[in-house]
């Protein structure tokens, strides 16, 4: 049976997977299949996770982080687009300055706005530090007149990080209600449910147990394929932090 790779699932994916599993199980005679206790345990945790997820999504800081991340991404892409446009400039000095800055920028990654929150913050800080301390890059910034763009990116990045830390404090103040903590319980309940299905499928005579195993295995495979496609499309930098929680790491998914 396909095993869902929960370490790569965002909270939204994890929650929806559990809901889909419960829908598949509830489409059978649960009592007759002797899965009521395990189903109820998972259903209870899924309801708790659903409520927590909705609360966290409605958090003012959460929405503020999304908006600030969008702001800094726009500033970053504006800078990159400006530098790339100078590659077609008739003035060789402008071309040369833009190439120097682009070379430095690309050394930090080819898709920086798709990095997880912490990585993007650190990369932008390091890049801007280079542009403010390395003589040739300081001169290049002056040549292509990017001071206003850089000021905007620096402000957006610093503001994002300050609000991100505020979010960390907020979650630390209420650890018992963290979605991340409940995920562990949800994973355990899911494994117990599946283990009972597989045991009955092996030892019992009701073919529906094996049908359930097959259906949930297919569901897990489809989710794994979807998540892997998302990661390979540009979120690969977030794999190590694809939290068990996408809320404080994330994977640009709050």
What's the helix and strand layout?
Layout: H1 11-26, H2 36-57, H3 60-86, H4 92-107, H5 117-133, H6 135-144, H7 147-173, H8 179-203, H9 207-235
Helix pairs in contact: 1-2, 1-9, 2-8, 3-4, 3-7, 4-6, 5-6, 5-7, 8-9
Q: N-to-C SSE series? A: HHHHHHHHH
Strand content: under 5%
Number of domains: 2
Question: Given the structure, what is the number of helices?
Answer: 9
Rg estimate, integer Å = 24 Å
Q: How would the global form be characterised? A: elongated
Main sheet specs? none
By secondary-structure content and strand pairing, the structural class works out as: mainly alpha
Tell me the total number of β-strands: 0
Low-confidence stretches: 235-254
Q: Mean pLDDT, rounded to whole units?
A: 87
| Helix content estimate | over 70%
Distance from N terminus to C terminus (CA atoms, Å) equals: 30 Å
Structural commentary:
The chain is an all-alpha fold. The chain has two domains: 6-59 and 174-241, no CATH class; 60-164, no CATH class. It is 74% helix and 0% strand. It contains nine helices and no strands. It has helices spanning 11-26, 36-57, 60-86, 92-107, 117-133, 135-144, 147-173, 179-203, 207-235. Helix 1 runs antiparallel to helix 2 (36-57) and helix 8 runs antiparallel to helix 9 (207-235). It is elongated and about 80 Å long. The protein starts with 10 loop residues before the first helix and ends in a 19-residue tail after the last helix. Residues 235-254 have low confidence and may be disordered.
Task: Briefly characterize the structure.
This protein is mainly alpha-helical and 254 residues long. The protein has helices at residues 11-26, 36-57, 60-86, 92-107, 117-133, 135-144, 147-173, 179-203, 207-235.
């Amino acid at each position: 049976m396909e095993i869902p790779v929960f370490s790569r699932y965002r909270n939204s994916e994890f929650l929806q997977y559990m809901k889909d599993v419960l829908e598949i199980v509830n489409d059978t005679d649960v009592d007759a299949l002797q899965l009521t206790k395990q189903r109820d345990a998972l259903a209870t945790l899924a309801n708790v996770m659903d409520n927590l997820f909705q609360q966290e999504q409605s958090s003012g800081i959460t929405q503020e982080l999304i908006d600030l991340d969008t702001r800094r991404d726009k500033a970053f892409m504006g800078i990159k687009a400006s530098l790339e446009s100078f590659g077609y400039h008739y003035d060789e000095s402008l071309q040369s300055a833009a190439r120097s800055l682009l070379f430095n920028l690309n050394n930090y990654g080819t898709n920086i706005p798709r990095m997880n929150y912490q990585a993007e913050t650190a990369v932008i800080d390091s890049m801007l530090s280079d542009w403010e301390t390395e003589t040739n890059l300081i001169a290049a910034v002056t040549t292509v007149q990017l001071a206003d763009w850089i000021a905007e990116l620096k402000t957006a990045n610093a503001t994002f990080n300050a609000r991100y830390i505020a979010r960390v404090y907020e979650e630390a103040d209420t650890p018992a209600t963290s979605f991340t903590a409940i995920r562990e319980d949800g994973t355990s309940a899911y494994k117990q449910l599946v283990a009972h299905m597989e045991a009955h499928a092996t030892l019992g005579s009701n073919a529906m147990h094996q049908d359930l195993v097959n259906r949930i295995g297919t569901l897990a495979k489809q989710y794994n394929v979807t998540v892997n496609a998302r990661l390979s499309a540009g979120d690969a930098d977030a794999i190590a932090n694809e939290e068990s929680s996408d809320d404080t790491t994330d994977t640009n998914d709050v």
